[in-house]
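Friendly challenge for the regulars: who can give me the structure tokens for this chain first? No prize, just bragging rights.
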Amino acid sequence: MKKIKILTGLTIIALIVGVIVMNSCKKQESEIVQVESSITKADKVFVSKLVNFKQKVDYIKENPHFKSGETMEIDSVIWYLEALFNAVYAYPDEVYSRSVTDFTTLEVGLDASGFVSLNELSVKYDELYAVVREFYINSGIIDKGFVLLDLEINEIISDQAIISVRSVTGEKNSSSAGFEFFGENDWWLYGNLWGDCDYLNTGTDAAEKIEAAIRETKPYIITPPGYYWVYSDVDTVHRIGNEYMDENGKYLMFYMMKENGNFMHDDKCLEPDEMNFHYNGEFQVIYEILEPELGKRFMDCDLIGVIDTDYSSNPRIRHDNWLTFATPHLMDSGTSIIIKDYLDE
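First reply, four minutes later:
Bragging rights claimed.
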């Protein structure tokens, strides 16, 4: 079997963001002041925009016959719908071991100028809530939490915009204990849900195991009582696996290409050292490369083991990466009408 040295130097402490609240009242007061000072001008602008939008939507819900006459550009509609929904219902900072992703589309009516009326927007928010809640309830997960909503414009046809809806529900894992490297029994086939290297324990694979490890060791964001993080501008990055290498020229994410397409069992089987190498590689790509590059915080990941060909028709086996990030905003729950809620209540 192949041996690969495990990456070192990934420091979780450097990634933890927030403030630890001490036991004494005096210390707690000083820490809260410190948190308030860390609420940026951009955070305040974000909250103000969201609160103003929610007030308008709530008013129309309470007064369905009122015609405001106000309209918005479709890009703004997407931003507000996504940001408000995630602010109220999403809990991305929980620890999840796996997730279920659902897709659908939402049709939003446009006026003759290509804008969306506030009344139409209010109706679509309710429709969005209904369909996402159905996904959430029927996810097949018992101990679950809503991770994120991701909206994008699919296409605009005449008098309507087709919006792509991605809804992610996570399975909570309260037993995670930081960086948990793979042990001596972790020999897994790279993908296709083939199970371990003896073709047992099917229904999972190396990609699924690394994905779960990334979720379970996601740095915990420490926030004192009365404050919470909300997220906007969700951004999903796609990586095919060959974009990043270490100093020895090894792919950080699992990727192997052979012109003859003759992949042996040893190629497809990731032994513990390889599992750890690619786990650490994913961690490095997410937190040391993409987070600084995007200026956003990591939210969720989906790793899929696939076999396909490159642009030169060379066969390859790899881990297809869908990595989601978003812009964090610190919110004071005591001064905002944006109240956190749960989809199953």
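The helical segments are 25-38, 41-62, 74-89, 118-137, 206-216, 265-268, 272-294. Residues 187 and 271 are 4 Å apart (CA to CA). Your move, everyone else.
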